[in-house]
Design brief:
Number of strands of chain B: 10
Strand order of the largest sheet of chain B: 6-7-8-3-9-10
Strand content of chain B: 25-35%
Number of helices of chain A: 17
Shape of chain A: rod-shaped
Bound molecules: adenosine-5'-diphosphate, magnesium ion
Strand order of the largest sheet of chain A: 2-14-1-15
Strand content of chain A: 15-25%
Largest sheet of chain A: 4 strands, antiparallel
Structural class of chain B: alpha/beta
Helix content of chain A: 40-55%
Number of helices of chain B: 10
Number of strands of chain A: 15
Radius of gyration of chain B: 18 Å
Oligomer: heterodimer
Order of helices and strands of chain B: EEEHEEHHEHHHHEHEHEEH
Helix content of chain B: 25-40%
Chain lengths: 521, 241
């Protein structure tokens, strides 16, 4: 039978060629679309793997919110709100679903003291553009700013795990920082220098405001910090991001988180001795309070992440004004922007939803091509096969008169088609890959530019989804056309399927075939 | 020896709602070693008869027995494959194949035992019908009518069957070539002990037959005649028309 197949194909070159070309084109369509689909799936998987199961919790204190608390007759001050949030966070990060987390505590007030009160400090410092120097806590030796290469330690070292846990009185400072040393000399900071931070409690007037010209110091306590490292700023945070403008890398003095906690405790103890009058608008000054940066929480897996984030959201959503707006019998004061979001969770998988849109459109495109081409080719191929069968009716009749089984004749014809198919498809798969690559890459790029990026920025055009740490270029890098064995098998299955379905016409034609009329007519 | 029996064969074509009876209770026996002619004027049902005994069509009633066994039971395909060969008026060879390949194809299809190298045998069968090797290797589309018909006869011989049926095998050939083909077929019957049944309207061919079965369109049946009187009988019928 195979011998006869080859003979037929060899002796009827025009027909063989026509079938070959049709199947070759079909093969390009099918392999192209399958490859695009598979590549999209690859990107999906790689993205999820790379993004991991992490989330970033952000909460930013602004004066507005403490005002709102007051207005809501809860009489909680700014620090009270913060403490409540901080407590909640402590519970969250100790959850079983969390495998790792990192955050920074920071303190602004003390840095003001450092700068403004340098005359009363042993080692005051200067030399930076913004004078809002802040103590910035870290909770691991390779802290985030180092990991992202935003800053690098040029001299000295980072903290050890132990120093971090103990809240050791050590710090890492900017290379541009200048201090007055013991001899009154103004110079660069060196490893081993000791600088002093100070907590100061000022007197306020009866409205809770500090005296502008003549601040009266009620009490002060000092904290010595030994310099163990000097850092260089490689990438400065863009202003106007989710961070307060003061929180520029160049203004940071890195210290262990636990040291900030103890400094804050020291301040709270000091302050509690004085009975401050609290104004309606402000509690204790924000500048004397402790702050908390974004918290990056690494969950066990994607489902843990979803579970955790929805729990947290339920619990802390009230920090947003709109929630307050829902309280019965209350409406926020006119000067407060109710729609502003103060608390937000960004999951690594949130970015996935954006990319998933891109991938879905790619997938849909490939599917349309696949289904349309399969349908079209089944029709075209069936027609061609039918036409060829009609011209072969004498041959079929002769084979029948010689006593060949109809099933054998059908098998022979289908085998002929499959033989051409093997040739056509093996060459078209290679070319299909070649063609799919630029098409899909182009499509992906286009959609990415319009869709992915628009989801990555807030209304002001700021990048909000740094957590996944992936921009469109990273995603494009994940896009790689490769034809693996299962994909090739899938392509072959579809192509064989098309041939077999089209061959139905052979079965139909042959079983209804009446040799008598053809041969004896 | 009796190889084929036709028993009460009834056949009609359906013309819309009307039945046109072509064969009505036809009986006939065929033996090996004899050359049979089915004689009849055009449209008398000769081809219809042949198509039924060659199992390219099935009877409406009655049966065909091959060596005493109903061919329906043998299986029509199997019967065609192993028990008979058919030679057609228009040769019916596979056009893209050479003469040899056409013969070889038939040998590959049959279940009958064929001893020896099939290709060699195919050339041998062709040589037996006076087709040399050079001609045997040409595609049949480039052969003359006579060569094609001889190829068809070689094909019929190659499968080692007892019965060879032919429908007007000389219908498309000139007189001289026809004579050769008929001689060949008669030789097959007498020398190779085949049962050769040919359908024809040619009285000369009928004249050379061992048995003539003349189809009477009115009776829709055979007027079976002994070889000696067939000519007269047919001629008298001829004159009557
Ligand atoms: N498929 C068919 N349908 C209807 N009538 C047919 C068909 N084939 C043949 N006939 C008719 O049956 C009769 C016998 O035909 P046929 O057996 O071919 O005659 P012959 O071979 O003797 O010329 C003719 O009248 C012919 O017209
Ligand atoms: Mg006829």
């Amino acid at each position: 039978m195979l011998k006869r197949d080859f003979l037929y194909l060899k002796r009827n070159t025009v027909r063989t060629l026509i079938l070959f070309i049709v199947m070759f084109i079909l093969g390009i369509f099918i392999s192209g679309s399958v490859i695009i689909r598979e590549s999209a799936e690859n990107v999906r998987q790689r993205f999820l793997k790379k993004a991991g199961a992490s989330m970033t919790l952000s909460y930013w204190l602004e004066d507005d919110i403490s005002y709102l608390y007051y207005w809501n007759s809860e009489h909680r001050d700014h620090q009270g709100t913060f403490n409540e949030y901080y407590e909640a966070i402590q519970e969250i990060i100790n959850d079983n679903y969390v495998i790792d987390h990192t955050y920074s505590l920071y303190k602004l007030g003390i840095s003001n003291c450092l700068y403004n009160q340098k005359d009363i400090l042993k080692n005051g410092f200067d030399g930076l553009e913004d004078h809002n120097i802040l103590l910035f806590g870290v909770d691991m030796p390779e802290f985030i700013d180092l990991q992202t290469n935003d800053v690098s330690i040029t001299t000295g070292r980072s903290f050890t795990r132990e120093e971090i846990n103990n809240g050791a009185a050590l710090c890492i400072v900017n290379e541009n920082l200048r201090i007055y040393d013991d001899n009154g000399e103004y110079r660069e900071v060196k490893i081993g220098d000791v600088i002093t931070a100070e907590n100061v409690v000022y007197e306020t007037d009866d409205k809770g405001l500090y005296a502008i010209n003549e601040e009266k110091v009620l009490e002060r306590k000092q904290q010595q910090l030994e310099v163990i490292g000097i850092f260089h700023v490689s990438t400065e945070l863009e202003k106007n991001t989710i961070y307060p403008t003061v929180m520029l890398n160049r203004n940071k003095i890195y210290v262990p988180n636990n040291l900030i906690l103890s400094i804050q405790q020291q301040y709270d103890e000091m302050e509690s001795q004085y009975d401050f009058y609290r104004s309606e608008a402000y509690g204790s000054s924000a500048t004397t309070s402790m702050g908390l940066t974004n918290i990056v929480v690494q969950a066990k897996d994607t489902s843990s992440l979803w579970f955790l984030s929805s729990n947290i959201n339920d619990r802390l959503q009230y920090l947003n004004y709109s929630e307050y707006n829902q309280l019965p019998g209350s409406s926020p004061p006119a000067n407060i922007n109710v729609d502003k979001v103060f608390f937000s969770i960004i999951r690594s998988t949130d970015a996935y939803q954006n990319i998933s849109w891109v991938l879905k459109s790619l997938d849909a495109f490939a599917n349309v091509i696949l289904y349309v081409s399969v349908t079209a080719f089944v029709i075209i191929l069936s027609l061609i096969i039918y036409l060829f069968l009609k011209t072969r009716k004498t041959e079929i009749g002769i084979l029948m008169s010689l006593g060949t089984r109809k099933s054998t004749i059908i098998a022979q014809i289908v085998l002929e088609l499959l033989l051409i198919g093997i040739l056509a498809f093996s060459s078209s798969t290679a070319i299909g890959t070649f063609i799919a690559e630029p098409i899909s890459r182009h499509m992906m790029n286009e959609t990415m530019l319009t869709e992915y990026n628009s989801h990555q920025t807030d209304d002001d055009g700021n990048i909000i989804n740094k957590v996944a740490g992936m921009d469109e270029q990273d995603v494009m890098e994940m896009y790689e056309i490769k034809v693996s064995r299962p994909e090739t098998l899938k392509i072959l299955r579809i192509e064989t399927g098309v041939i077999l379905v089209s061959s139905a016409v052979t079965v139909f034609y042959t079983t209804r075939f009446k040799p008598k009329e053809v041969l004896l007519g | 020896m009796k190889v084929l029996e036709v028993k009460d064969l009834h056949y009609f074509y359906q013309d819309g709602t009307r039945k046109r009876v072509i064969l009505d209770k036809v009986n006939a026996d065929f033996e090996t070693g004899k050359f049979y002619s089915i004689l009849g004027e055009s449209g008398s049902g000769k081809t219809t008869f042949l198509s039924i005994i060659s199992a390219l069509d099935t009877p409406k009633e009655g049966k065909i027995l091959f060596r005493g066994k109903d061919i329906r039971e043998i299986g029509y395909e199997k019967y065609r494959r192993n028990n008979i060969s058919i030679v057609f008026q228009n040769y019916n060879l596979i056009q893209y194949m050479t003469a040899m390949e056409n013969v070889l194809t038939a040998m590959e299809i049959t279940d009958n035992e064929i001893k020896g190298n099939k290709k060699k045998l195919a050339y041998q069968f062709l040589e037996d019908v006076e087709i040399d090797r050079e001609t045997a290797d040409r595609r049949v589309s480039r052969l003359s009518g006579g060569e094609q018909q001889r190829t068809a006869i070689a094909r019929a011989l190659s499968t080692n069957v007892d019965i060879i049926m032919a429908d007007e095998p000389t219908g498309n050939l000139d007189h001289e070539t026809s004579e050769g083909i008929i001689e060949l077929l008669i030789k097959l019957a007498h020398e190779k002990n085949k049962c050769v049944i040919i359908v024809t309207h040619d009285l000369n061919i009928a004249d050379k037959s061992d048995v003539v079965l003349s189809l009477d369109p009115k009776a829709r049946n055979f007027i079976r005649k002994d070889n000696n009187i067939v000519r007269k009988q047919v001629e008298s019928e001829f004159y009557e028309v």
